[in-house]
Structure formats: structure tokens, C-alpha cells
């Protein structure tokens, strides 16, 4: 897929700056990310990793306690994982984490960066089996970095996620501002609205490239009515 010239010229200086620090790990991660994007643009879905600001916005108001499970979809090189790991080391002590990432090169980076965390080199479509294989209970939170708007299986992924979440659980994903009106982004919002008990849109987070909305789908604690 050819790059949009606007995107290419906007992003190039950022990569030049990053790559000039040849020994810097973030520079290597950005380069790996860009290479994987060029090889597989629809499944990677972004030219560069999300920012810390987007990571924090994704976790805003998320209260978890020891024994709860948090699943991350499409962890990439770990930009959102970093924000999650920060919380796991502080107010989320005892929360269990499972990251699911299909790209082997990204899994190698993730395991090196976060040796305490469990990563499955797998498809998120298999989330129920992956949880069962680890004897993990229903997750309280699923945090997604997937480029859902490009994925043909987006409806199934959202519905399957709602199926595995615990009552009171939350699914969070993001959607780039410039894609807001595309068919894929509209479908993601409408499926989330139809699937969860509450759907809300937050942001946009401007300190991200590109700026992005955070989408939240929440399951009610009462599943009887
Ligand atoms: C936009 S990147 C996000 C990376 C990182 N979370 C971030 O926000 O910077 C999307 C990631 O989802 C992964 N991915 C795409 N489809 C997947 C699937 N079906 N199962 C697991 N991972 C998938 C890609 O390999 C890629 O690492």
C-alpha cells in the first residue's frame, strides 16, 4: 500500500530524529514498527507506536484489584503496555496480565521489555482459548491497540470480547481522528454501541500521531435484566 504523501512527509522528520540516536531502544522499536507497517499495513494499522498520553487516556478511571485479569490486544512494541505496566507496579498490584500479539518480532521485543508479563504469540480471535489454557477467569478489562477499522473480523472480535468480559468489565480501543467518518470506523462504533451496555467516546488525545479518540464499551454488573 502506498503511503499518503501527507502522512509520509509529516512522519519522516520524526523518524529521522528518532533514528539519529542509534543506540536508543525506542528508535529501534520505531524502526521495527515502521518496517512491519510497510510489510503489513492493514494488520499493523499505524506508522508509529501510540504515545504515553494515549496510553494513559486508555486507562483513565480504570479501577482494578488484585486477582482481576487485564488483557491487551495487539501489544505491538509495547507503547500501551508501558502505561499498563506502570499501573501494575503501583495501584494494580496483584492484577494478572495477558498480552496477545500475532507478530513474532513484536513478541520478542515485548518479552525483552516486560519480562514479568505474559505474552501469547497468537490471534486475539483465540482469546477464550488463551484464557482457558492459562486458567484465567473472565477479564475485567480488555485494552486494544488493534487497527479494528481495517480488520475484516472487527465485528466478531468486538462481540467475542463482550462475550469473554466479566460483568462490569470494560473494552477500550482507539480510533484515529482522520478515520472517524470512514465505513470501518462507523461500523466499529455501531457494533460497540449495539454490543455493550454503555458506549462512550472520549478525547481526542491530541498528543498522539495521529490524534485519536478513545472508545469505551462497558458491560453492566447486572446481567440478569
Ligand atoms: C496499531 S498496532 C498497535 C501497537 C501498540 N499497541 C500501540 O498502540 O502502539 C496494532 C497491533 O495489532 C497487531 N494485530 C493485528 N491484528 C491482530 C490479531 N488478529 N491478533 C493479534 N494481534 C494483532 C499487529 O501486529 C500490531 O502489533
Query: Which structural class should the secondary elements be placed in?
Result: alpha/beta
Name the CATH superfamily classification: Vaccinia Virus protein VP39
CATH architecture name: 3-Layer(aba) Sandwich
CATH topology: Rossmann fold
Helix content: 40-55%
Question: How would you spell out the order of helices and strands?
Answer: HHHHEHEHEHEHEHEE
Q: What is the CATH C level class, in words?
A: Alpha Beta
**What is the number of independent domains?**
1
Beta-strand percentage range: 15-25%
Distinct small molecules: S-adenosylmethionine
Oligomer: single chain
Radius of gyration, taken over Cα atoms and rounded to an integer in Å:
17 Å
Poorly predicted runs of 5 or more residues: 1-23
Tally of alpha and pi helices? 9
Spatial separation of the terminal alpha carbons: 47 Å
Tally of DSSP β-strands: 7
Cross-sheet strand order for the largest sheet: 3-2-1-4-5-7-6
Give the SSE layout.
Blueprint: H1 5-20, H2 25-39, H3 41-44, H4 52-59, E1 69-73, H5 79-88, E2 96-101, H6 104-113, E3 118-121, H7 127-133, E4 141-144, H8 154-164, E5 170-176, H9 183-195, E6 198-205, E7 212-218
Parallel strand pairs: 1-2, 1-4, 2-3, 4-5
Antiparallel strand pairs: 5-7, 6-7
Helix pairs in contact: 1-2, 4-5, 8-9
Amino acid at each position: 500500500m502506498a503511503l499518503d504523501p501527507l502522512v509520509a512527509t509529516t512522519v519522516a522528520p520524526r523518524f529521522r530524529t528518532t533514528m539519529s540516536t542509534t543506540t536508543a531502544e525506542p528508535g529501534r522499536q520505531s524502526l521495527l514498527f515502521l518496517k512491519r507497517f510497510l510489510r503489513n499495513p492493514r494488520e499493523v494499522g499505524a506508522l508509529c507506536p501510540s504515545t504515553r498520553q494515549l496510553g494513559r487516556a486508555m486507562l483513565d478511571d480504570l479501577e482494578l484489584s488484585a486477582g482481576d485479569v487485564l488483557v491487551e490486544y495487539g501489544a505491538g512494541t509495547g507503547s500501551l503496555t508501558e502505561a499498563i505496566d506502570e499501573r501494575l507496579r503501583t495501584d494494580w498490584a496483584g492484577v494478572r496480565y495477558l498480552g496477545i500479539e500475532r507478530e513474532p518480532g513484536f513478541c520478542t521485543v515485548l518479552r525483552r521489555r516486560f519480562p514479568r508479563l505474559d505474552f501469547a504469540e497468537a490471534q486475539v480471535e483465540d482469546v477464550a482459548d488463551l484464557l482457558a489454557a492459562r486458567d484465567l477467569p473472565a477479564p475485567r478489562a480488555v485494552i486494544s491497540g488493534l487497527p479494528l477499522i481495517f480488520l475484516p473480523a472487527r465485528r466478531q472480535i468486538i462481540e467475542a470480547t463482550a462475550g469473554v468480559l466479566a460483568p462490569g468489565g470494560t473494552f477500550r480501543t482507539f480510533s484515529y481522528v482522520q478515520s472517524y467518518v470512514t465505513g470501518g470506523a462507523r461500523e466499529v462504533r455501531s457494533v460497540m454501541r449495539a454490543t455493550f451496555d454503555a458506549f462512550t467516546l472520549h478525547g481526542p488525545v491530541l498528543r498522539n500521531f495521529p490524534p485519536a479518540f478513545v472508545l469505551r464499551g462497558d458491560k453492566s454488573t447486572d446481567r440478569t435484566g
